Amino acid sequence: MNDIATAVASFASLSTRLKVETGAQHERMHRLMECAQPFASREAYARFVAAQYLFQRDIEHLFADPAVRAAVPDLDSRGRQQASRDDLGDLGAPVPEEPIASVGVSMPAALGWLYVSEGSTLGAAFLFKEAQAKLALSAEFGARNLAAYPEGRAVVWRRFVASLDSETITSEEHDQVIAGANAAYDRFGDLLQRHFQLD
């Protein structure tokens, strides 16, 4: 980390640091999605949903940790594992099985994994529109995993950011949260590469 980055990190909120320090990972996910072209057909989209399902299993595995539940009080309203599984059923696609990648992840790194998942929910509005327009899917059929939370994307995202930036997460723990976010990005990137056979 250079001197400027170190100075910024010393006073920035955790949510700000996450956005800045995982920016390259975020852009990499955009590039992978462009290469994957998940909305080219329902078959291609089913590969995306399979990747999403496995990632959401990783995320919801963390929900059982009392420390994670304490840090994010509305945890039970989050997560899209079942939605992804139901979408696979709608699409006539098999439910994939492989080991959960987040085994052994705990607080505070778990918050980084949640950050990636919740950020993808916030950003899925565009993907949801693509699924509707190109594949005739909906929040009731095939695209549940991309649909907004009942309260709306922005409201639920702001509540999560408030949990991130609360005083219960100490500045000494921030680096571990960021490391967790990078690990989660790596995991989802790996899932996309494997499911779409990308280089």
Give your account of this protein's structure.
The chain is 64% helix and 0% strand. By secondary structure, the chain is mostly helical. The chain has a single domain (13-195), classed as Heme oxygenase-like (Heme Oxygenase, Chain A), CATH 1.20.910.10. The longest helix is centred in the middle third of the chain and has 27 residues, at 109-135.
CATH class label:
Mainly Alpha
According to DSSP, the number of beta strands is 0
Oligomeric state, counting identical vs distinct chains: single chain
- The percentage helix is 55-70%
Number of domains: 1
Break the fold down into its secondary structure elements and pairings.
Layout: H1 3-11, H2 14-21, H3 23-36, H4 42-61, H5 66-71, H6 81-90, H7 109-135, H8 153-164, H9 174-195
Short description:
GO terms for molecular function: heme oxygenase (decyclizing) activity. The chain has 199 residues and is mostly helical. 64% of the residues lie in helices and 0% in strands.
Labels describing this entry:
199 residues; Heme Oxygenase, Chain A; Biliverdin-producing heme oxygenase; Haem_Oase-like_multi-hlx; 9 helices; single chain; 64% helix; heme oxygenase (decyclizing) activity; mainly alpha
